[in-house]
Amino acid sequence: MMDSIAGLQLGFSHALTLGNLGWALLGCFLGTAIGVLPGIGPALTIALLLPITFKVEATGAFILFCGVFYGAMYGGSTTSILLNTPGESGSIITALEGAKMARNGRAGPALATAAIGSFVAGTIGTLGISFLGPVVVDLALKLGPAEYFSLMLLCFVTVSAVLGGSALRGLTSLFFGLLLGLVGIDLQTGQPRMTLGVPELLDGVNVVLVAVALFAVGETLYMAWRHTNAAPQVRQVGSIMMSRQDWRRSIGPWLRGSLLGFPFGVMPAGGTEMPTMLSYYAERKLVKPEHAKEFGTTGAIEGVAGPEAANNAAAAGILVPMLTLGLPTSATAAIMLSAFQSYGINPGPMLFEQQGALVWTLIASLYVANIMLVVLNLPLVGLWARILKIPQPQLYAGILVFATIGTYGISNSVTDLVLLYVIGIIGMFMRRFDFPTAPVVIGMILGPMAEQAMRQALTISEGDWTTFLTRPVSLAILLLAVVALVGPRLYGRLVSRAP
Amino acid sequence: MTRPGAGPDLAVGGFVLLLALLAFWQTSVIPASPIYAQVGPKAVPYVVSAGLFALGVGLVASALRGGWSHALEEVREAPPTNWRALGLLLAGLAANLVLIGPLGFSIAASAQFVLVAAAFGSRHLLRDLALALVLTLLVWFLFVEVLGVNIGAGVLEGLVLRALGQEVY
């Protein structure tokens, strides 16, 4: 507790310097813009911004990345409400009621409750990071390589098999990522692996390339595959003032959504879909009878306020395992982890000790970013709505310009571009056949870390594989992973068998 | 008993199986390590290959039982394949690939921009080209000058640099 307050004091003293405020503002602005734009998200943006790590010191770069991360959450709701096409998975639920409100001329209050709800949730989530982070670190310091390996296995299961449509397809995505992560020189023995004899692949496949391929090239190809000339309709914003009744109806959902979303983000479940969905159903049950008929018809403000808060709180929660354990549970967190690696910093329990100033400045910047975002989003909502009017042809053409330079800039190699397009085409088919793409990126980053932890654990145990089962904490985590893998299916089978 | 639409799903399962076989082959050619290690460099690749193979078998089995595509709302409601758009987009990617070496980023990416915009139904070829040249040059300067990414100056970048009185590197 005292640690946290002292840490925050240190953090704010760094975060409130002019330079760092500038990075935060830039990040928030960029993040909101890319959140608004359909088709691109924070993972892609941070991947393209990674070269900045060669020029800018770590603190500035991470403040920028976190601004983008939080900003994209705010911006995503604008697209869901005004365009009825959710920009990312966390906004799907927001689109349900939000787009209906917009159709009934209530886009303004919907946007306002989403923005203020995001602020409430972001603040609660950031408070959660500040005070939960050090606690998790204390626990994490007791873990050895064996426990870490088990924890990563749990992470693999939850990000690929628990969420999404099918465990089979989620795990296939994950294993594709693990395979990509294996390409290159084995760190421990120096042997080349999975390189197909191509010398360019000795350095491994770059995670930026894969992220850009899946999130930009694959997405664009899929959009072209399904392209029709019907232009989407952008709704008018109107007045963003919320009536007294709107406020009264929003406060409960904001708080409930935040408290629901944060734990989901913290647990290595990574998803924002589950908490937003749960929040939606909760609000639908809890709504006052006189407003119940608005759900699904004219659009209920509770159905925007709750899920939007849950979305942001879950996104904040994802930073807890990322900063304290070094475990990324979303594609964006995985890319941020690779940014840490490019500074030679390994996120994990030692981060809070060795890089205390960096971590606390980062956390303090999240508070700052939240305030900036609510200010940027409420009065400027008209500007963000204008971004939605960028015509599709130029938007996608522009996205590919950035994709090209982001990839070509890595090594000026045409081989990389070929790889970009090949993985992009795979990404297009993944989209068509409903394979999630985030597990690919997570597997790619986490796979090599898991292999290293496993080898360390086996070196300590002198080659005894039972070490993962005889250490109680490790065993408990592994059992949890098994439950997460087969539990939902077993439950489903039991339910379907019952008459 | 296969339903219509299960064919593509079967192809996906087959692709994953092929990928697994490729992984097995690549694992088998990893040279044995001269350095002693509890776990050699081959162990994890074998596990990943085996995992992929099992998942491929699972996907094939799922496809033979009727597949999963027909249950996806997005697939059922999808408009027909837009070959024109897809073709133009792939042409854009190919143009970029061919031109970026000899002519440099801006020209290659501009060609790509125009083709991609056309793929998504833009009819203003010249306007797109003008937009593309400005955008790609701006992006090039942003990445090279601000982010410090090393991307060699092509034909167009060289001209602009010389016009600005800078040395071309």
Automatic annotation (TrEMBL), chain B:
InterPro entries: DUF1468. The chain crosses the membrane at residues 47-64, 85-109, 129-156. Residues 11-150 form the DUF1468 domain. It comes from Belnapia arida. This is Tripartite tricarboxylate transporter TctB family protein. It holds the Pfam family TctB. Coiled coil: none annotated. Keywords: Membrane, Transmembrane, Transmembrane helix.
